[in-house]
Amino acid sequence: MKDLTPDLCDNFEQDVRWLPLSMQDYGGRSVFYGEVVTLRCFEDNSLVRDILARDGKGKVLFIDGHASCSKALLGDQLALLAVQNGWEGIIINGAARDVGTIATLDIGVKALATCPVKTVKRQTGEENVTLTVAHTLVYPGDMLYADLNGIVFSKQPLDLSVVSA
Predict the structure, then answer these.
(1) pLDDT by residue (tens digit) across 135-156?
(2) Which of the residues 28, 53, 101, 134 could staple to 21 if both were Cys, CB 3.0 to 4.6 A apart?
(3) Calpha distance 30→12 (Å, rounded)
């Protein structure tokens, strides 16, 4: 399955919300989906580590970094931690680094840009809160579906049998 979101938008038009934000793909997996876990933080990835250290089977972490690309909220060590704990993917409204290495990992990663600078560590941020990104509401517990075409959300899991091979 290479194109997931167009078929979902065609078949579940009333049930999906599209995130109108152009993101770059950095992970080794270009198609991924799962239940959303949200995090709002600014130039501090302390809580990213805490969340990715948990079991992430069937989940996607959506990080709202306030679109700051001055510090990278995800690097190779955190991406590897996510893979080890079964996360499906990570979406960053902000920057990632170590993207050459991240591209070799079996995880979906989308971010606005890259930045080689690490974050500060202040243990700040808010987990499992409703986010507003690009005029789109992102709710914890929503289902997120991502591919090279973009990102869509639904309140309930969608029937993937409608997707072309």
Answers:
(1) 999 999 999 999 999 999 999 9
(2) 134
(3) 21
